[in-house]
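Why do we bother with holo predictions? Because pocket geometry can differ from the apo form. Keep that in mind while you read this record for heme C.
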Amino acid sequence: MFRTRCCYCILCSLLGLLLAWLMLATPQAARAQAPKGPVSFINDVAPILKENCYACHDSKKKKGKLEMTSYENLRKGGTKDDPVTPGKSKESLLIGVVTSTGAEGQLPHMPPKDVGDPLSKEQIGLIAKWIDEGAKLDAGVDPKTELIRELRIRFKPPQPPAAYKFPVNINALAFTPDNKKLVVGGYHELTVWDVAGGKLEKRLWTRSERAYAMAFLPDGNLAVAGGRPGQEGDVRIYNINAPGKDQGGVQFLDGVNDKNVLIRHLLESDDSVLALAVSPDGKKLASGGCDRLVRVWDLAGGQLEHAIENHADWVFAVTFAADNIHLVTGSRDKTAKVWDLKAKESVLTFPDHQNGVYGVGIASDGKTGWSCGEDNQVRQWQATDEKKQIGKQIRAMTGHGKAIFKVVQNNDPKNPILATCSADNTVRIWDPVKGAALKTLSGHSDWVFAVALSPDGQLVAGGSYNGEVRVWKTGDGSLVKDFNASPGYTPKATAAKK
Ligand code: HEC
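The structure, written out:
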């Protein structure tokens, strides 16, 4: 699949997804093995078509002129007639192509053999049973309903495991406003840890499978961007201080159903939301993700103010400049860009990474921007048009030996620092004025996907692929605490290396 080539974080998310899937077989997979009672098109058949056939039979590709995006379109057929003959699975083209040997003179095999695994016997059995039962659409579902959307609505988030068998990979973490706790993204949950003791305090269940970005709002609520890779994305706002249920000293909060916990729901989209930023004045929230759009909401009213289509590929990073007007973004399209929200236009494009850009930032005076990514560099560039040098590289800050997944900055204009995290298993601290590396913080035994600075700038935390969290003092680089943020998981000394 094309996604596996794109970038480490998504690749690992997929691996993580696989692990998670092994831990918790999805209800759909369970159903495919044990068809009981009448087969439901929307719950049983559509997920199989979506997983195995949509890549070529969506509204864009329409291979064989066949579109499966809705029940109606499926039944319209493609170059041939309706692929379904109700009551007669053996005569149906749909069953014909998934059971064909694909030999000369036979029907083509679907999915084409060089592209995907054939459907399992159970899956074919389910589709055949549905056809034999009359190939009906479920009551109450419009034949024109977009199946992807309907499946998304019907998705029921699983409860996170009581104890993880595999470490959860961390894509995002954030310090609480009092600098004392860390919120860490898990599998369909956020976990809250006391930094000094490394103790699990809360588990907050989320619809989103993974959190890719988090930002505390001025009112103390937490905005979280995330999704299920390739399935859905969201931006939701949670009150992590709402009362939960105490179980053995850990508070359980229901961020799926409890309105005191899930405060607001800003976005639901077709694929993951990867980046999030609050404006310095606390009035706006910006997001970016796999749909290439950068969105900006007014936080007071919750309305979407901008949906900016300026990047040609996934948006991995967004940050506001101190003026609350300029927005810096980074993308898999290999560029960092600055957008003017007032003028509604692109101000500059920085192309020098020549590879995916995963993180961005901008100095408090707005003159210097920086970006990092797949090319192992933090690059500083001219963000204003003095002497027509806008978008020119000032320097490359070298040091990381592998891809740099994120760059974050502190809030102190007098003493600015940057922190980065990398596939070289380190977190680094930099002086963005001198462009110098200040500290290399090691000890992670896996790729560090997430990095966060405490609001007071005293602490920096890294979160990695294997669930490790390490917290250091930014001043002297000493380790404050390390723990694995996968509840109930006990890392084995002999754990297999990647
Ligand atoms: C990698 C792309 C790809 C995937 C995945 C794929 N198909 Fe196809 N499909 C095609 C192409 C190409 C054709 C046209 C082939 C031909 O006419 O020889 C086609 C034709 C068909 C047709 C005949 C349509 C008509 O009216 O001519 C059916 C039915 C079909 N596919 C079903 C499926 C099913 C069911 C799946 C999933 C289990 C699937 N396909 C997955 C590429 C794909």
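The domain at 173-484 is CATH 2.130.10.10 (Methylamine Dehydrogenase; Chain H).
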